[in-house]
């Protein structure tokens, strides 16, 4: 996919009939997907004609949602155009935070259990 999409092209495809989404410096044709989007078409249309990377990552899309993107890819966004794209360098960098939370850490369990144990010890031995 060597095509480079300009800001003018991105703006020209910002309606429900023809919609491009700019995510992580890549442009996707989401026209066919807009009616199937679980959040509704208004959510996608609100990000039309601009960098949707932050909005995409803030929602915390699932791996299944991310897997839908590659077939929709039409090209890269122009690097030095009128629209400056987000500083987010790698796709899924927001997912790494959610992955860490899903996997959990020992502190997520240790601290609440310690506090709960201390509370019961205080109630039992303090009474």
Largest sheet: 5 strands, mixed
**Shape annotation:** elongated
Q: How far apart lie the N and C ends?
A: 72 Å
Major sheet: order of its strands?
1-5-4-3-2
Specify the number of helices.
Answer: 6
User: What percentage of amino acids are in beta strands?
Assistant: 5-15%
Structural account:
There is one protein chain. The protein has helices at residues 7-12, 41-45, 53-59, 63-67, 93-103, 106-126; strands at residues 4-5, 14-15, 18-23, 26-29, 73-77. By secondary structure, the chain is of the alpha+beta class. It has a five-stranded mixed beta sheet with strand order 1-5-4-3-2. The radius of gyration is 21 Å and the shape is elongated. The N and C termini lie far apart (72 Å). The mean pLDDT is 80.
List keywords for this structure.
5-stranded mixed β-sheet; 127 residues; alpha+beta; 6 helices; single chain
Secondary-structure topology with pairs:
Blueprint: E1 4-5, H1 7-12, E2 14-15, E3 18-23, E4 26-29, H2 41-45, H3 53-59, H4 63-67, E5 73-77, H5 93-103, H6 106-126
Write a brief structural summary.
This protein has helices at residues 7-12, 41-45, 53-59, 63-67, 93-103, 106-126; strands spanning 4-5, 14-15, 18-23, 26-29, 73-77. The protein is of the alpha+beta class. The N and C termini lie far apart (72 Å).
């Amino acid at each position: 996919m060597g095509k480079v999409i300009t800001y003018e092209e991105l703006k020209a495809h910002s309606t429900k009939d023809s919609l491009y989404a700019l995510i992580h410096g890549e442009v996707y044709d989401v026209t066919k997907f807009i009616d199937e989007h679980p959040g509704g078409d208004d959510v996608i249309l609100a990000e039309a004609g601009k960098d949707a990377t932050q909005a995409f990552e803030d929602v915390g899309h699932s791996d299944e949602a991310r897997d839908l993107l590659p077939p929709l890819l039409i090209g890269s966004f122009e690097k030095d155009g009128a629209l400056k794209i987000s500083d987010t360098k790698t796709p899924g960098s927001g997912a790494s935070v959610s992955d860490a939370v899903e996997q959990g850490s020992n502190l997520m369990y240790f601290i609440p259990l310690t506090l709960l144990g201390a509370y019961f010890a205080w109630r039992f031995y303090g009474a």
